[in-house]
């Protein structure tokens, strides 16, 4: 009489008969636990272990490769939501636009700063501790019926953010892109605080100029055909000159300088284990510089 053959079962499902082995760990696996492999099938645990051991693909600047410009979508969404908030309540602009110093009168009106202000008036702006204005102003835009551009202000900025932001995000990855955008926006506001503290400003242009500087630096680092890139930068610099008579050139220039400084670190950091440290350290250094300049200017304005 022949001996009864042993029945093999799945290592994860002992009640399920199985005759297929994982090509990596050699354990029996059932159809529910099988995963296609280059040769044969692997179990769930071996597939997970293999994924952990595979090095994630990176861009030339150290960012994770992504196929969806999620951060650009979010930034555009935040700007549009802020604009809708302005339409619903116009006081949002006065409350959150970038302003170094100003006065609020007893009638609720907003007035130009003067050191010896009369009774009933009180300060507003960064000098009054409203530090959030350094960033919130970068998400606001001119209301429909105000300013030189009206609704074109947000339309032009969002179109620029869509065109430039996607290219920059794909190259830098999301984390580096967020840091670049916020530091560029902050750089624009800080230069406004330093040069024109009495002038209220708003708009994403400073951050977008920072992205423009990043686009130029990355193109040079990657050895791209610079003809079209140079034309783009010429247009950007031309708009910087034109904006001196129309909008806040200080915000544009501040964003350009901050964005360029950060991207130089992104692009030319050593391509080894020191890269993340150099890139993060530069971002922290730029942030620290902007904070120190802001504190020094506010101290000067409040003397």
Automatic annotation (TrEMBL):
<keyword id="KW-0812">Transmembrane</keyword>
<feature type="transmembrane region" description="Helical">
    <location>
        <begin position="177"/>
        <end position="195"/>
    </location>
</feature>
<dbReference type="GO" id="GO:0008233">
    <property type="term" value="F:peptidase activity"/>
</dbReference>
<keyword id="KW-1133">Transmembrane helix</keyword>
<feature type="transmembrane region" description="Helical">
    <location>
        <begin position="252"/>
        <end position="269"/>
    </location>
</feature>
<dbReference type="GO" id="GO:0006508">
    <property type="term" value="P:proteolysis"/>
</dbReference>
<dbReference type="InterPro" id="IPR035952">
    <property type="entry name" value="Rhomboid-like_sf"/>
</dbReference>
<protein>
    <submittedName>
        <fullName>Rhomboid family intramembrane serine protease</fullName>
    </submittedName>
</protein>
<dbReference type="Pfam" id="PF01694">
    <property type="entry name" value="Rhomboid"/>
</dbReference>
<dbReference type="InterPro" id="IPR050925">
    <property type="entry name" value="Rhomboid_protease_S54"/>
</dbReference>
<keyword id="KW-0378">Hydrolase</keyword>
<feature type="domain" description="Peptidase S54 rhomboid">
    <location>
        <begin position="129"/>
        <end position="265"/>
    </location>
</feature>
<feature type="transmembrane region" description="Helical">
    <location>
        <begin position="201"/>
        <end position="217"/>
    </location>
</feature>
<feature type="transmembrane region" description="Helical">
    <location>
        <begin position="229"/>
        <end position="246"/>
    </location>
</feature>
<keyword id="KW-0472">Membrane</keyword>
<feature type="transmembrane region" description="Helical">
    <location>
        <begin position="131"/>
        <end position="156"/>
    </location>
</feature>
<feature type="transmembrane region" description="Helical">
    <location>
        <begin position="65"/>
        <end position="85"/>
    </location>
</feature>
<dbReference type="InterPro" id="IPR022764">
    <property type="entry name" value="Peptidase_S54_rhomboid_dom"/>
</dbReference>
<keyword id="KW-0645">Protease</keyword>
<feature type="transmembrane region" description="Helical">
    <location>
        <begin position="276"/>
        <end position="296"/>
    </location>
</feature>
<comment type="similarity">
    <text>Belongs to the peptidase S54 family.</text>
</comment>
């Amino acid at each position: 009489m022949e001996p009864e053959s042993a029945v093999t079962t799945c290592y994860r499902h002992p009640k399920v008969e199985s005759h297929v082995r994982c090509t990596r760990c050699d354990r029996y696996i059932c159809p529910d636990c099988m995963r296609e492999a280059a040769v044969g099938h692997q179990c769930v645990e071996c597939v997970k272990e293999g994924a952990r051991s595979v090095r994630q693909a990176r861009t030339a600047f150290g960012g994770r490769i992504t196929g969806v410009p999620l951060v650009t979508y979010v930034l555009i969404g935040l700007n549009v939501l802020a604009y809708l908030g302005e339409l619903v309540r116009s006081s949002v602009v006065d409350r959150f636009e970038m302003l170094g110093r100003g006065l609020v009168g007893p009638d609720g009106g907003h007035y130009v700063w003067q050191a010896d202000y009369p009774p009933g008036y009180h300060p507003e702006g960064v000098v009054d501790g409203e530090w959030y204005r350094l960033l919130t102003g970068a998400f606001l835009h001119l209301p429909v019926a105000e300013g030189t551009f009206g609704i074109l202000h947000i339309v032009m900025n969002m179109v620029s953010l869509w065109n430039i932001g996607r290219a920059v995000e794909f190259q830098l990855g999301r984390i580096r892109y967020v840091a670049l955008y916020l530091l560029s926006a902050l750089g624009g506001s800080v230069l406004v605080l330093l040069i024109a503290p009495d002038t209220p400003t708003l708009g994403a242009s400073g951050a977008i100029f920072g992205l423009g500087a990043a686009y130029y630096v990355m193109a040079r680092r990657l050895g791209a055909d610079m003809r079209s890139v140079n034309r783009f930068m010429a247009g950007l610099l031309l708009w910087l000159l034109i904006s001196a008579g129309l909008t806040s050139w200080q915000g544009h220039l501040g964003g350009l300088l901050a964005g360029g400084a950060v991207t130089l670190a992104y692009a030319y950091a050593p391509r080894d284990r020191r890269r993340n440290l150099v890139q993060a350290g530069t971002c922290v250094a730029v942030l620290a510089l902007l904070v120190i300049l802001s504190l020094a200017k506010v101290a000067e304005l409040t003397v």
